[in-house]
């Protein structure tokens, strides 16, 4: 397993599959527990993440830390990754070809982690991983089972920073995630 992670990291660190490699400072692969039951997927690195090589360390990351703590989850319980591993210039949405070029890494990562739950944070993650027509405002907080994973989408932490009214529905989503993981863990005992 360690070997597989080494292969993944090597491939990502040298990746030139799309033009984002030309402007990145660091490739941002992921953080958290590689054996976690919960995989959180964001959009792509922002400025702080590009500078440090670590996902969700900026303002959105700080809010995410708080939300995780509020549902009694820590970095021991989750692994955090993004749809694209290199920062799109000026934080624009990643282009289709960039997402497609990067998705095989995320698929491989998911296979290594083998989470029970995948949480898509925001529109980009949900439209890429669940369905191209996914509407966060209408469909967040709904469970679906795909390829042996329980999947759910919620608002991206950055969206909550921009619009406080989304905090309440996001909180409801996170409570559902907490309930689900407790139920799954009990099933396994
Ligand atoms: N936003 C994301 O989607 N991912 C990060 O890693 C940081 C901010």
Strand order of the largest sheet: 1-3-2-4-6-5
- Looking at how many chains there are and whether they match, the oligomeric state comes to single chain
Runs with pLDDT <50, length 5+?
none
**What is the first-to-last residue Cα distance?**
24 Å
Average pLDDT figure: 97
Let me know the number of strands.
Answer: 6
Helix content estimate: 40-55%
Radius of gyration: 16 Å
The helix/strand class is alpha/beta
- What's the story with the biggest beta sheet? 6 strands, mixed
Number of helices: 9
Order of helices and strands: HHEEHHEHEHHEEHH
Characterise this structure.
By secondary structure, this protein is of the alpha/beta class. Helices cover 48% and strands 14% of the residues. It has a 6-stranded mixed beta sheet, with helices on both faces. Helix 1 (2-13) packs antiparallel against helix 5 (96-113). The protein binds uracil (URA).
């Amino acid at each position: 397993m360690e070997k597989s992670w080494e292969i993944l990291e090597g491939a990502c660190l040298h990746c030139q599959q799309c033009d984002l490699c030309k402007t990145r400072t660091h490739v941002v692969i992921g953080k958290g527990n590689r054996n976690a039951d919960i995989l959180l997927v964001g959009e792509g690195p922002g400025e702080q993440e590009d500078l440090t090589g670590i996902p969700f360390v900026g303002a959105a990351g700080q809010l995410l830390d708080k939300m995780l703590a509020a549902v009694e989850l820590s970095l021991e319980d989750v692994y955090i990754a993004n749809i694209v591993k290199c920062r799109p210039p000026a934080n624009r949405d990643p282009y289709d070809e960039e997402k497609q070029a990067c998705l095989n890494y995320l698929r491989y990562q998911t296979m290594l982690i083998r989470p029970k739950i995948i949480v898509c944070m925001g529109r980009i993650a949900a439209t890429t991983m669940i369905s191209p027509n996914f509407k966060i405002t209408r469909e967040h907080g709904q469970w679906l089972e795909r390829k042996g994973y329980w999947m759910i989408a919620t608002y991206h932490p950055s969206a909550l920073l921009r619009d406080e009214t989304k905090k309440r529905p996001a909180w409801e989503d996170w409570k559902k995630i907490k309930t689900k993981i407790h139920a799954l863990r009990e099933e396994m005992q």
